[in-house]
Design goal:
Layout (H helix, E strand, L loop, with lengths): L8 H41 L18 E5 L4 E5 L2 E4 L12 E5 L3
Antiparallel strand pairs: 1-2, 1-4, 2-3
Length: 107
C-alpha cells in the first residue's frame, strides 16, 4: 500500500482557483488594514496638535469668608491650605448649587 502525498492535477487546479478567488479578499483586507493604520495616525496627529486643556480652576472662591478652609457647590469640593486652593473634579451628571462652607479654621 503506497500513499501518494502529492496532489493530483484536479486538486492542483482547485487550489489554484482558491488562490485566485482569495485575491479580492486579500486586497480588501489590505485596504482595511491600511485604513486602520491611517485612522490611528490621524488620531495621534490630532492629539499632538490640539492644545492642552486649561488648568482646573477653583469651583468657588469664598472671598467674603477667609476662615472657610473647605467649601463645596455640590459638584466640587475645594480646600484651602498653605499651598493654595485645590478642588476635586465634578461628577458626570452634576448640577452646581450655591457654594457653602463645609469646614472653618481659626474660629
Amino acid at each position: 500500500m503506497s500513499v501518494d502525498s502529492r496532489p493530483g492535477p484536479r486538486e492542483h487546479r482547485s487550489m489554484a482557483d482558491n488562490v485566485t478567488a482569495d485575491a479580492p479578499t486579500r486586497s480588501h483586507d489590505r485596504r482595511v488594514a491600511w485604513s486602520v493604520v491611517a485612522l490611528v495616525a490621524v488620531t495621534v496627529a490630532v492629539g499632538a496638535l490640539v492644545p492642552a486643556p486649561a488648568p482646573h480652576r477653583a469651583a468657588a472662591t469664598p472671598d467674603s469668608d477667609p476662615a472657610c478652609a473647605e467649601w463645596s457647590d455640590g459638584c466640587h469640593v475645594c480646600q484651602r491650605d498653605a499651598g493654595g486652593v485645590a478642588c476635586s473634579l465634578p461628577g458626570i451628571a452634576c448640577v452646581p448649587k450655591e457654594p457653602s462652607c463645609l469646614r472653618r479654621v481659626g474660629g
